[in-house]
Amino acid sequence: MKTNSALGAALLIALGSARADSPGEPGRDADGPNPLNNVYFGEQHLHTSASPDAFAFGTRADANDAYRYAKGEAIKNAQSGEMIQKRTPYDWAAVTDHAEYLGMMPRCWTRTVRCRRPRSAS
Q1: Domain boundaries defined on the chain
Q2: pTM for this structure?
Q3: In whole angstroms, what is the distance from residue 94 CA to residue 97 CA?
């Protein structure tokens, strides 16, 4: 048992001395290779008011709002009227609005274009 305890203590000491130079990004301060690879957190599926489905569920934020929110800035929630803000900003974000009817819902809602069913070809 003493051998296992001594080995465990030595391992803990060795691991403690090999900790990362900066939290989340090991090796950055040392200008050396990064054997653990950096981990980045982000959002790969954001929709704005330009997507019909998001608009139908109450989203009124545009792409600028989405990126500002992802960077940790406060934006206004259209449904509650309150300012919302992420505690920790994302490292990256992608706005992935649907191509079908892109931007049409806000335009129809504000009546800047006539939105109606097309006439039949008969």
Answers
A1: 41-111
A2: 0.60
A3: 9
Structure tokens at 22: 């900066």
The region, left, alpha or beta by phi > 0 then psi within -120 to 50, assigned to residue 72 is left
Q: Are 70 and 93 in contact (CB under 8 A)?
A: yes
* Three-state secondary-structure class, residue 35: coil
Would you state the structure tokens that stand for residue 70, as one six-digit string? 């992802």
Q: Output the six-digit token pair for 98.
A: 């649907």
Q: Check residues 72 and 33 and name the one with the higher pLDDT.
A: 72
The structure tokens listed for 2 are 């003493």
pLDDT per residue as tens digits for the range 48-103: 999 999 998 889 999 999 999 999 999 999 889 999 999 999 999 999 999 888 88
Query: What is the rounded CA–CA span in Å between residue 48 and residue 89?
Result: 18
Pick the closest to residue 47 from 122, 89, 2, 99 (CA basis).
99
**In whole angstroms, how far apart are CA 104 and each of 33, 59, 61, 68?**
49, 14, 14, 23
Q: Quick one: 25 exposed, middle or buried, by C-beta within 10 A (0-12, 13-18, 19+)?
A: middle
